[in-house]
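> forwarded from #structure-qc
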C-alpha cells in the first residue's frame, strides 16, 4: 500500500505543473498582475466610488500622462541605462508648451511640434554624453537633472506671469486636455497608440531587437556589429520625447504652470518601472510590464491622496515600494533561473522489473563477437547516432556538426557531405522514392531529396488539451519508420528537455515522451501515444499494422497498433531488458535488431524507486556528479515478434563499440553506429540474406 501511495503521489502531485508555470516567460508579468489585483481590491474597499465612471475616467487620463514617461524610462532601462532627468525634462516641456500656446498664441500643432523637438534635444544631451562619450548614466543624468531643473526655474520665473495673464481660445488645445472620444480621454488614446507602437518595435522590429541585445550585453552586441552607441543615445532621445509628450497633455489638462511641476517624478517613474518588473540590469522588459507598473503606482499615489494622507506618507510608501521591488529584482529576477531549475526537475516513481541476467546460460550472454570487426570512417566522423544504406550500397550517417555524410560503396573509403541539415541527425529512413527522412534533434522531422535539397516536413504536432507547457513544438525527434501507406511514425524522446539535457530526463524518468504520426497525404501531424519514458527506436512491425518502439529509461519494448482490429492498442513485447534500448530495425529473417546503448546497474535501478533521493541529488550536487545511466558499454540483440531473444552481439572490451545506438542489416552485414563513437562498424552475419535491404527504392516513379 505504501508503494502504491508513493507511486500515485509522484504521478499526480502537481510538482511538474508548478515547475512548468515558473518556467513560463509570462511568470515575470504575473507578479505585477497579482500586485495590481491586490491594489485594486484594497483601495476599492477603502474608497467609495472607486469604480465610478468619473473616477475611472480621471484615473485613465492621469495614469496615461505618467505612462508616457514610464515607457521612455523602460526603453532606457532595457538598454542598460537610467534617466534621472525625466522630471526636469517633463517640467521644461510643460512650461514651454504653455508659453507657446498662451503668450505666443501659437497654433496647437506647431506648439506641440516645437515642444516635442525640445524634449528630443534634452534627451539627446543625455544620449551624447552617455552613448557616445561613455559617461556613467547615473551620474550624468543626476547632473542633467540639476541643470535642467535650474533651466526650468529660470523659465518658470520669466514666463509664469505671462502664462497666467494670457488666455487662448483654441478649441483643439482644450480638447487635447479635456476632450473625450468614445468616453475615453484623448491622453489615454494617445498613450494606447504609443504603447502598441513601442510593443511592436521591441518585439517585431530589428531596432527593438538591437535595444534588447545591447541591454543584454553591450560587448557582445558590439562584437556582433551592432551600433551600440547609436542605440544607447537613441533610447535617451525617445525618453525625452515621451517626457515632453506627457508634459503637453498635463499642460493641456491643467492649463497652468507650477514651480513644483515634475518634482520627485524620477522616483515615481522608477518605482513604476520596477513594480512592473523592468530589470535594472538591462536586457529585460516589456511594454506590458511598464503599463502594469504605471497603473499600480498611480493607483497607490492617487488613492493615498484621496484618503487625505500627507505627502510624507505617500513618499514613504513609494520609498518602501522602490526598496521592495529593487530587492525583488536582485533576489528573484536575477536568480530565477536557479530557482526554476530546482523546482522544474521533478523525478517520478519508476519501478523497473528485475534486470535479466547476462551470464553464460542467458540469451543475453556476454560474448566478444564485435571485437574484431571492420571499422569505417575511423576518426573521420563524430556522433554517427544512426546509419543507413541505399540500394546502391552507399552508407549514410549523421554527425554532431549538422551534416549527413555518405561513404561510397564498395570499399567505403571515399566520404562526402551528402547534405547539411543544421542540427544533430538522429533516426533516418528512406522512402520508396529515395527521399531520406531524418529526425533532427531540436528541429523536428526533415527530409533530403534525391537532389540533396533539405526540406522541413514538420516541426510541430497537436497541443495536448490539458498541458500547461506548450508541447506543440518538437524538441527531441529521435527515430522513425515509414508505414506502407506513407505515414511516418517517429518518436519524440522528451517534451521537457533538449538533446544535451538527456541526463536530466533520465533523472526524472517520467512519461515525458510520445509517438507522433505525420501523414503526407493530409500534411497533418498528430500525437498517437503519450506519457512514454524516453521513447527512442521505432520500427514497423512485420504485419505492417503496428510499430515496435523502445522506452530507454524504462528498459522495455512495446508495440502500438495503428491499423487493424487492435488499432490504438499498446501492448508489451519485452517488459525488461538488461540495458537501455535505442534504435530498432528489421532483420532479414523477419525478426528485429535492437541496440542497447548501455547496461543497467543496481544502484540506478534502486534510485528509480527513490524520487525524493533523486530530487535532493539534483539540488545539492553538480550535474556531472549525478547518478546516471551507464551508457559506456552496450550490445545488439535480436528478438522475434513475441519478444524472445534469439541472439546477442557484444564487444566485451568496449574498444570498438563502447556505445551502440543503432544498427542496420544490409546485404548480409550489420552496420553499427553510436552517438558517442567516432566510427561505424561492419559485422559479417552468418546465414543472412545477401540481398536484403531495409528500404528498397521504387525506381522511375514520382514522389507522392
Amino acid at each position: 500500500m505504501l508503494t502504491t501511495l508513493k507511486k500515485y503521489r509522484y504521478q499526480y502531485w502537481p510538482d511538474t505543473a508548478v515547475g512548468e508555470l515558473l518556467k513560463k516567460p509570462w511568470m515575470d508579468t504575473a507578479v505585477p498582475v497579482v500586485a495590481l489585483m491586490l491594489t485594486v481590491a484594497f483601495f476599492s474597499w477603502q474608497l467609495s466610488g472607486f469604480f465610478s465612471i468619473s473616477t475611472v475616467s480621471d484615473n485613465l487620463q492621469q495614469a496615461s500622462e505618467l505612462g508616457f514617461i514610464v515607457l521612455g524610462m523602460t526603453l532606457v532601462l532595457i538598454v542598460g541605462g537610467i534617466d534621472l532627468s525625466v522630471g526636469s525634462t517633463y517640467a521644461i516641456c510643460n512650461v514651454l508648451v504653455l508659453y507657446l500656446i498662451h503668450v505666443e498664441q501659437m497654433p496647437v500643432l506647431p506648439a506641440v511640434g516645437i515642444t516635442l523637438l525640445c524634449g528630443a534635444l534634452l534627451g539627446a544631451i543625455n544620449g551624447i554624453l552617455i552613448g557616445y562619450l561613455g559617461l556613467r548614466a547615473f551620474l550624468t543624468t543626476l547632473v542633467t537633472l540639476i541643470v535642467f531643473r535650474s533651466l526650468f526655474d529660470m523659465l518658470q520665473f520669466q514666463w509664469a506671469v505671462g502664462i497666467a495673464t494670457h488666455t487662448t481660445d483654441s478649441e483643439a488645445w482644450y480638447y487635447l486636455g479635456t476632450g473625450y472620444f468614445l468616453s475615453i480621454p484623448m491622453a489615454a488614446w494617445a498613450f494606447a497608440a504609443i504603447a502598441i507602437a513601442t510593443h511592436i518595435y521591441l518585439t517585431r522590429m530589428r531596432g527593438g531587437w538591437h535595444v534588447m541585445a545591447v541591454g543584454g550585453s553591450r560587448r557582445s552586441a558590439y562584437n556582433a556589429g551592432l551600433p551600440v552607441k547609436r542605440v544607447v543615445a537613441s533610447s535617451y532621445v525617445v525618453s525625452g520625447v515621451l517626457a515632453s509628450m506627457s508634459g503637453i497633455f498635463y499642460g493641456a489638462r491643467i492649463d497652468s504652470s507650477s514651480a513644483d511641476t515634475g518634482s520627485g517624478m524620477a522616483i515615481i517613474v522608477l518605482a513604476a518601472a520596477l513594480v512592473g518588473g523592468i530589470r535594472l540590469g538591462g536586457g529585460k522588459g516589456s511594454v506590458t510590464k511598464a503599463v502594469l507598473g504605471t497603473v499600480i503606482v498611480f493607483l497607490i499615489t492617487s488613492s493615498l491622496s484621496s484618503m487625505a494622507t500627507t505627502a510624507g506618507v505617500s513618499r514613504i510608501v513609494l520609498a518602501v515600494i522602490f526598496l521592495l521591488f529593487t530587492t525583488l529584482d536582485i533576489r528573484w529576477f536575477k536568480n530565477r533561473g536557479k530557482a526554476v531549475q530546482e523546482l522544474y526537475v521533478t523525478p517520478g516513481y519508476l519501478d523497473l522489473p528485475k534486470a535479466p541476467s547476462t551470464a553464460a546460460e542467458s540469451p543475453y550472454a556476454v560474448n566478444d563477437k564485435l571485437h574484431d570487426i571492420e571499422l569505417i570512417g575511423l576518426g573521420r566522423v563524430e556522433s554517427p547516432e544512426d546509419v543507413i544504406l541505399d540500394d546502391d550500397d552507399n552508407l549514410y550517417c549523421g554527425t554532431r556538426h549538422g551534416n549527413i555524410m555518405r561513404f561510397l560503396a564498395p570499399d567505403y573509403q571515399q566520404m562526402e557531405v551528402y547534405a547539411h541539415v543544421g542540427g544533430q541527425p538522429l533516426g533516418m529512413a528512406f522512402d520508396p522514392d529515395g527521399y531520406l527522412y531524418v529526425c533532427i534533434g531540436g528541429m523536428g522531422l526533415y527530409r533530403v531529396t534525391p537532389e540533396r535539397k533539405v526540406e522541413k516536413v514538420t516541426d510541430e504536432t497537436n497541443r495536448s488539451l490539458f498541458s500547461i507547457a506548450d508541447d506543440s513544438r518538437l524538441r527531441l525527434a529521435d527515430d522513425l519508420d515509414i508505414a506502407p501507406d506513407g505515414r511516418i511514425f517517429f518518436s519524440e524522446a522528451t517534451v521537457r528537455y533538449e538533446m544535451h539535457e538527456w541526463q536530466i530526463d533520465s533523472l526524472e524518468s517520467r512519461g515525458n515522451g510520445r509517438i507522433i504520426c505525420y501523414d503526407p497525404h493530409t500534411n497533418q501531424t498528430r500525437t498517437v501515444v503519450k506519457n512514454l519514458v524516453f521513447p527512442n527506436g521505432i520500427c514497423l512491425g512485420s504485419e505492417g499494422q503496428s510499430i515496435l518502439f523502445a522506452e530507454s529509461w524504462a528498459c522495455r519494448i512495446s508495440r502500438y497498433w495503428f491499423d487493424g482490429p487492435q488499432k490504438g492498442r499498446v501492448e508489451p513485447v519485452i517488459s525488461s531488458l538488461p540495458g537501455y534500448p535505442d534504435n530498432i530495425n528489421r532483420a532479414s529473417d523477419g525478426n528485429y535488431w535492437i541496440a542497447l546503448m548501455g547496461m543497467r546497474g543496481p544502484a540506478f535501478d534502486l534510485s528509480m524507486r527513490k524520487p525524493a533521493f533523486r530530487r535532493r541529488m539534483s539540488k545539492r550536487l553538480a550535474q556531472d556528479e549525478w547518478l546516471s545511466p551507464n551508457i559506456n558499454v552496450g550490445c545488439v540483440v535480436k528478438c522475434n515478434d513475441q519478444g524472445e531473444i534469439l541472439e546477442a552481439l557484444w564487444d566485451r572490451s568496449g574498444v570498438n563499440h563502447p556505445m551502440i545506438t543503432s544498427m542496420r542489416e544490409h546485404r548480409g552485414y550489420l552496420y553499427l553506429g553510436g552517438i558517442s563513437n567516432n566510427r561505424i562498424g561492419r559485422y559479417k552475419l552468418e546465414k543472412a540474406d545477401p540481398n536484403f535491404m531495409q528500404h528498397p527504392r521504387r525506381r522511375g516513379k514520382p514522389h507522392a
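QC bot note: The longest helix spans residues 137-165. Confidence is low (pLDDT under 50) at residues 699-704.
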